[in-house]
Design goal:
This protein is an alpha+beta fold. The protein has two domains: 98 residues, no CATH class; 157 residues, Nucleotidyltransferase, domain 5. 36% of the residues lie in helices and 16% in strands. It contains nine helices and ten strands. The strands form two sheets. Strands 5, 6, 7, 8, 9 and 10 form a six-stranded mixed β-sheet that branches. A hairpin with a 2-residue loop joins strand 6 and strand 7. Helix 3 runs antiparallel to helix 4. The N and C termini lie far apart (46 Å). 36% of the residues are buried.
């Protein structure tokens, strides 16, 4: 590392400021004796909440959205309010930065809120302010990584979920995935601006997207000389998807997704990824596709923050 920094500074103008402690509003906290690291946005979150008057005397809530609800187009007003729209867009954009950096637990809420930035109404604003009230309750929360031991070190795991035809306005399916390494998430798909919304006529092909992300992450780790040992275990609640990833036989009704599944099958055969059947309520990615009630949300929240070092649901290798 010293040789690398020396060579870098000989070629480019710069200074060595020592170990990284903060970048782009994100704080990096290392505890080397205990081999743990944290990524938090405490200072940024406090500034955000104070900007929107959500820091003092705020009634905090347990979930980012009201359980079992979605924001819909019917709540958009006929006449836009520039003042409301400006505040709404600022809130949603700020939440989006949190989601992209450290707060994957808010990915579904952000995805829902961002769909109505063009014409938000009072109902949408109330949902956005509720999301801020949730942030206020755990404003110092982030991602915690630890050394899981030699057997589980640098082992990629993932979860996939799809809520079929869940969008009441478009009847599109909402899909999402999360990939984890060393006890906490490192990559997730945010359900926002159509990025993880698929037409309802398609079979769940999010597993193919996970396979692509897994290929990228494994290559990245190999570049750091930390190649993962064994296949990445990915949990999926769609048994048909798992069967198609293993069975090369084409079916007339699955031709429209066959190209994507060819890539998935190749990764399965190469031993890079292995899909397991997971009972829906135990699927961590459930938090990315729907507004869960408090008990279900709290069941997955520790993993989404990295405070639960190991989370392996019931699996059925025979599927």
């Amino acid at each position: 590392m010293r040789k690398f920094k020396s060579a870098l500074l000989q070629r480019f103008t710069g200074t060595d400021e020592g170990p990284v402690t903060q970048y782009l509003g994100c704080q990096l906290i290392r505890d080397r004796p205990h081999r743990t690291s944290q990524l938090v946005q405490t200072a940024y979150t406090e500034r955000l909440l104070r900007t929107f008057d959500m820091w003092d005397e705020v009634h905090t809530v347990a979930t980012p959205m009201i359980p079992g609800t979605r924001v819909v187009k019917a709540d958009c007003p006929e006449t836009r309010s520039p003042t409301l729209q400006r505040r709404y867009r600022s809130i949603v954009g700020s939440i989006g930065y949190l989601v992209q950096m450290t707060r994957c637990d808010m990915a579904f809420a952000y995805g829902q809120l961002s769909l109505f930035s063009h014409n938000p109404g009072p109902v949408h604003m109330a949902a956005a302010e509720r999301a801020l009230a949730y942030v206020r309750g755990i404003h110092d929360q982030g991602l915690s990584y630890c050394d899981p031991g030699a057997e589980n070190r640098n082992v990629l795991t993932g979860w996939i979920d799809s809520d079929f035809a869940a969008d009441s306005d478009t009847r599109h399916s909402v899909t999402g995935y999360v990939m984890a390494l060393n006890s906490a998430p490192i990559s997730w798909r945010v359900a926002a601006k159509g990025a993880s919304r698929s037409p309802p006529v398609k079979l769940n092909t999010s597993a193919s997207a996970v396979a692509q992300e897994n290929t990228y992450l494994r290559a990245l780790l190999s570049g750091f000389d930390r190649s993962p040992l064994g296949p990445s275990c990915v949990w999926e609640d769609n048994a048909a998807c798992i069967l198609m990833s293993k069975n090369p036989v084409n079916r007339d009704r699955s031709r429209h997704v066959d190209v994507k599944f060819h890539f998935l099958r190749e990764r399965v055969r190469a031993g890079e990824i292995k899909l397991y059947k997971c009972w829906g309520p135990l699927n961590v990615a459930d938090t990315l596709t729907k507004s869960l009630p408090r008990p279900a949300f709290y069941k997955h929240a520790p993993f989404m923050h990295g405070t639960r070092s190991s989370y392996r649901p019931f699996t059925d290798p025979g599927v």
